[in-house]
Amino acid sequence: MFLESFEPARSAVPVPLQARRSLSGEFVFVSQDDSVAFTAEACIDVLRSANRLIGDGAYDWVHLRGEEALRNEGVICGPDQTLVLIGGTEQAWRPSQENLKLLRSAIRNAARVCVVGSAVFVPMTTGVLGAKRLAVHPNFRPGVIETCSGVELHEGATCHHKAMSSATGPASAMRMMVELVGARDGEFTRIALSRYLGLSEPEEEFSSGEFWRYKRMAQGDEVICDALQIMLDHLEDTLTVGQIADILDVSPRKLERGFSDRLGQTPLKVYRELRLERAHRLLAQTSMPVGEVSVACGFSNVTLMKKWFHLKYGELPYDVRRHAFAGGYAA
Question: Which domains does the chain have, with CATH numbers?
């Protein structure tokens, strides 16, 4: 990959256009046609998952399906947005004449341009090629070489060079998005997001989105990270703050102060959030009786679990169970 040109600045202060050729949290996806719209939706799911892990709604997006949608937009992409052009792996994307002007303007405006699959032809057709190194699907390499001889074909499935990112196809598009998130929000987030989405080898331990979010907020604090791992390992046999502190050989006061400073919450509340997330997954993914779920997640009784579950998710455990087995229209 070529990540050295990434500029992870997020300032909202207006600056000259060339200085905004960096990473943005706002994305505009344009699909070549409906047949490749699923790729854009998969990329959007990466951003949705990133928001969940980061916890601050850092990413927003819009999705325009097909060139027909372009003509209804006027200005497609602003200087504080990332433009993602989604193509397939069979047919080269040659924009219609009436859309060339719109796409040319969008590419020039965008903070960053990403091309997937056959979308590699769009910046060439519009005469705006913001990079000279690209990841190109094998089906399109001959055409790219003939169309723009100055382009260096990158051997990997994704490439990031200057103000342009590229991916060879739908699968690598998700990886490209993870890399963009990682370049903007840190390597820890990239690794956590990759694991969370199943793009890297899964670990044996329970994969918890809340755990990764809190661990990221801890920013490497050894005591807090170790405490979070202890909590994750003891979701059923809930420990007290004093017991966790004893295992870590620190005082309960120091542990509570660390959680307050780094996570803005008490250890007990964080512990409860991890247990509730586990309960939600068991209710949605298994047929375990609700009473057994409450015990498996460290609650002394179902009534207590129902109370905290409703406060966190806005619904009761039984609603989640009915939805899991009967779909969105469960009574």
Answer: 17-196 (3.40.50.880), 209-326 (1.10.10.60)
